[in-house]
């Protein structure tokens, strides 16, 4: 009886997804998947899955490998340097299975009960897609429409009187052949931009930045799943802000003081220059330990949020990472000024264990 490999593959994929779902919180806080990420593919380690192996039973008959001797003894009188006793317990095996980022996003969305995002902006890119729209008399043999071809041949034979109902045989000729025809259509795909901003001042240490890196990966995964075209821009700031690439964003060492408004001003300039709010779905994410230089600068940030970012963006998200040196006051200022405003999502991240909860708070509104 032939093996139904499709069923086996489906069962294995179900096991893999179940493993990811079970260990999702651990994956989120450990960064175990980040180093295994390829081109839209992530390798998932699956421990405790048994690997098939041979087991040998008793055999009275002689043969190669049988007879007197101990592990490490020389074969056929030749000198040997083996030592130790042979073990009888199986080794520990770890199997890796590949999961797409889309599957990873679906699992995260199900576990966190994240609603689907409804795009707001009208900016679209176009992708070309071939759609079969009709039947043609010419075309490649690979697109020949068999049923239509034999129908035409039957009609011709009946009309010409060559059809024999006693010996029904249809023989298509060249003029009977029909082919599927296609038309290339442009389909719009909604677009989004993510603006990542991170405080890299002296109070943000290595652990705080690692938490940001992990959370940004999962946020990216979810938004990529919801939009066809996602662009990401990266801003780091202490007392001064600058735009950097992804690698620099996560590897910059901490130093200097903190002026949060510098990041907000740069982010707004980027939006004005490249992402008109009526066309793009805009998602700024700011990560900080909540320390700011002065109350005056905090007031400036609150004004910018009220007058610029909140009216223009789908959602502005602020995640505050606990630090031994940060006051955490900025969270309190935002919470007090924008209580009940769904356009602003706030989250506290005391440590890695709370990354999953933070993502739920930031993405749970479906904006």
Largest sheet: 7 strands, mixed
| Cα Rg | 32 Å
Annotation, overall tally of beta strands: 9
Distance between the termini: 52 Å
Shape: elongated
Q: H/E element string?
A: HHEEHEHEHEEHHEHEHEH
What structural class is derived from the secondary structure elements?
A: alpha/beta
Low-pLDDT stretches are: 124-128
Please indicate the percent range of residues in DSSP E strands (runs of 2 or more): 15-25%
In the CATH hierarchy, what is the architecture of the largest domain at level 2? Answer: 3-Layer(aba) Sandwich
The helicity comes to 25-40%
Q: By CATH's scheme, which homologous superfamily of the largest domain applies?
A: von Willebrand factor, type A domain
What is the CATH class designation of the largest domain? Answer: Alpha Beta
How many domains, in number, for the residues? 3
Averaged pLDDT: 80
Q: Can you tell me the CATH topology of the largest domain? A: Rossmann fold
Q: Helical region count?
A: 10
């Amino acid at each position: 009886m032939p093996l139904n490999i499709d069923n086996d593959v489906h069962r294995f994929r179900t096991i893999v997804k179940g493993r990811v779902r079970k260990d999702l919180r651990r994956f989120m806080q450990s960064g175990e998947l980040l180093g295994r990420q390829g081109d839209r593919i992530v390798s998932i380690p699956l421990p405790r899955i048994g690997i098939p192996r041979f087991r040998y039973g008793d055999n009275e008959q002689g043969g190669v490998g049988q007879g007197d001797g101990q592990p490490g003894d020389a074969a056929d009188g030749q000198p040997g340097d083996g030592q130790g006793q042979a073990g009888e317990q199986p080794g520990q095996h770890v199997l890796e299975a590949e999961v797409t980022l889309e599957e990873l996003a679906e699992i995260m969305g199900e576990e966190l009960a994240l609603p689907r995002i409804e795009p707001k902006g009208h900016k679209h890119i176009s992708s070309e897609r071939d759609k079969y729209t009709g039947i043609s008399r010419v075309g490649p043999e690979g697109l020949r429409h068999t049923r239509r071809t034999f129908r035409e041949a039957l009609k011709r034979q009946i009309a010409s009187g060559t059809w024999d109902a006693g010996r029904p045989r249809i023989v298509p000729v060249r003029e009977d052949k029909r082919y599927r025809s296609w038309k290339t259509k442009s389909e719009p795909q909604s677009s989004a931009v993510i603006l990542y901003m991170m405080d890299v001042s002296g109070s943000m240490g290595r652990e705080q930045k690692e938490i940001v890196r992990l959370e940004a990966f999962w946020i990216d995964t979810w938004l990529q799943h919801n939009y066809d075209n996602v662009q990401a821009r990266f801003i780091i700031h202490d007392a001064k802000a600058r735009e950097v690439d992804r690698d620099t964003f996560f590897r910059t060492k901490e130093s200097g003081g903190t002026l949060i408004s510098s990041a907000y001003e740069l982010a707004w300039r980027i939006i004005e220059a490249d992402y008109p709010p009526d066309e793009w779905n805009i998602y700024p994410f700011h990560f900080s330990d909540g320390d700011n230089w002065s109350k005056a600068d905090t007031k400036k940030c609150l004004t910018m949020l009220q007058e610029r970012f909140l009216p223009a963006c789908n959602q502005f998200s602020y995640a505050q990472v606990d630090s031994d040196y940060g006051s955490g006051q900025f969270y309190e200022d935002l919470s007090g000024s924008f209580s009940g405003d769904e356009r602003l999502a706030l989250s506290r991240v005391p440590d890695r264990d709370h990354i999953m909860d933070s993502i739920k708070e930031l993405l749970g509104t479906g904006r």
